[in-house]
Amino acid sequence: xxxxxxxxxxxxxxxxxxxxxxxxxxxxWVVIIFKLFIMFFILKLFFFPDLLKRDFGSDSERSKYxxxxxxxxxxxxx
Amino acid sequence: MIENIDLSLVNWxxxxxxxxxxxxxxxxxxxxxxSFILVIMETKYYRTGSEVWKKITKFWMKLxxxxxxxxxxxxxxxxxxxxxxxxxxxxxxxxxxxxxLAVEGIMAFFLESTFVAVMFxxxxxxxxxFHLASTxxxxxxxxxxxxxxxxxxxxxxxxxxxxxNPETARNEMQSFRAVLFNPVAMEKFFHTITSGFVLASMFVxxxxxxxxxxxxxxxxxxxxxxxxxxxxxxxxxxxIFTGDIxxxxxxxxxxxxxxxxxxxxxxxxQAGLTLLGFLKDGSERDGFxxxxxxxxxxxxxxxxxxxxxxRDAFVPGLKDLLYGNEEYGIMPASEKIERGKGAREVLAxxxxxxxxxxxxxxxxxxxxxxxxxxxxxWFRYFGYSFLKRPADIIPNVHAIxxxxxxxxxxxxxxxxxxxxxxxFSYKKTIDKKRWFLRSALFIFPLPxxxxxxxxxxxxxxxxPWLIRDLLPVTAGVSNISASAxxxxxxxxxxxxxxxxxxxxxxxxxxxxxxxxxxxV
Lengths: 78, 520
Hints:
The complex is a heterodimer. By secondary structure, chain A is an all-alpha fold. Chain A is 73% helix and 0% strand. The mean pLDDT of chain A is 84. By secondary structure, chain B is mainly alpha-helical. In chain B, 70% of the residues lie in helices and 8% in strands. Chain B has helices at 7-48, 51-71, 76-84, 87-93, 95-121, 128-157, 176-180, 183-213, 218-253, 255-261, 302-308, 318-323, 333-356, 359-370, 372-377, 397-426, 434-442, 446-462, 473-476, 482-513, and strands spanning 162-165, 170-173, 268-269, 273-285, 288-299, 314-315, 465-467, 471-472. In chain B, a hairpin with a 2-residue loop joins strand 4 (273-285) and strand 5.
């Protein structure tokens, strides 16, 4: 059946591609999905918060904190 | 607080970043190089219409796909680490680091992902011309993606095009053009992509050699070697050329790294280029441990010629850079530390003025940060104020010296192997040179090693800096516990090992299957 809608054509192109994946393609996709799941749903959520975003509500608070960090004199580094 | 940062945290954070980057870099150069080898092969198919070239293209495209898929998104973990382990660095670097990475992300997603799909799903569904154009665009897109990452990395080595804003405590981009056309970035880009071309050529040569040794897929292997050897040879010549230019720039903007690469302790006119050398620990003074070269083969005067085009040019050694050299106008590190502290005091005064509501002083001090003299003579040494002692500017000479020389040796070895492959291929005798085929197979891991060594030199040579002269690693690391980083380090090591085993096993299976047509 002829499909004239270009968006539909693109979607069909991808669907057909995925439907006809060879054996190695399926394995690769399993690895990709596993990897992305671990990365975004485990590592990012539980181990890699964006600290400055998490700990401060606004950019001005973050700036203040950083100014403090950059100017505090310490025995160890001064 | 910076005083709460212990060195084990810094070292674990560095180790974790190194592990992630090393793993990520196993895949990237092969993607960069193999994409262009595919372009050549498919162009052959497009021009000749030969089914043999189609089969060859599809075989290598399959290996490209496996490598691309497993490697894809591994770099995102590095971005996670910026936010968690290096949050102070990320804030301090501001949009200068973020902008190129954002461009890379958008570009990689739209250009690569769209046309990669056409490459794999489009055989027989789109015209030959459109398919070839997609392969070209994947190759160009992949290599341009690398450009943006390298622009960001180069800025850490040669921070340009920005102005520090004391109000936000971060650097703000003043000139995107200066950041993009940073000489370090351009040279790094061309050196990196040419190294990827050589690596991919060696990859094709090694696997094709295996086929010939097994007496399988002979036509595909011979034609693949013909392409890879020529492409690889010219790429290796370009690699040597870009490496030479790159080293010259390093000598200018990162003289400490350059001196460490050559283990040059005493500066010299007519400095010799070390071809081979062995180091041993020498005397130690104020934390500066000298390493004596116990044996050295060198070409006299060549280092001076390479760095300044003049055999009599002075090349500063680590001692000159550490203790200063008045004759050649080299400032001692102790003076830089004093200037850095001066800049930091101005920043502290600014902070106090803000807190006390002294608006006149705030605007006065703010103007100081825009003053060229303050920027060039004081603030450019800001990072030195965090160092404990001058000797902290010296990186790990041992690791850098050996890594650099081994990388260069391997680079020349690959050039030799590729020119031999070209010659034997041209003479149509390569399938009979079993010793050569065995050697080409045996050295399969070496291009990957050389590529990683290049990054080791780059990153270890920049130490102690995250951003050269402006921010050391000790000041850029987040206030988190070392045990948290240790936990994620172990998690990464396990995850990466599992993924690597998965990739290698899928790839080996496909190589063993050879070029049997498997429609995608």
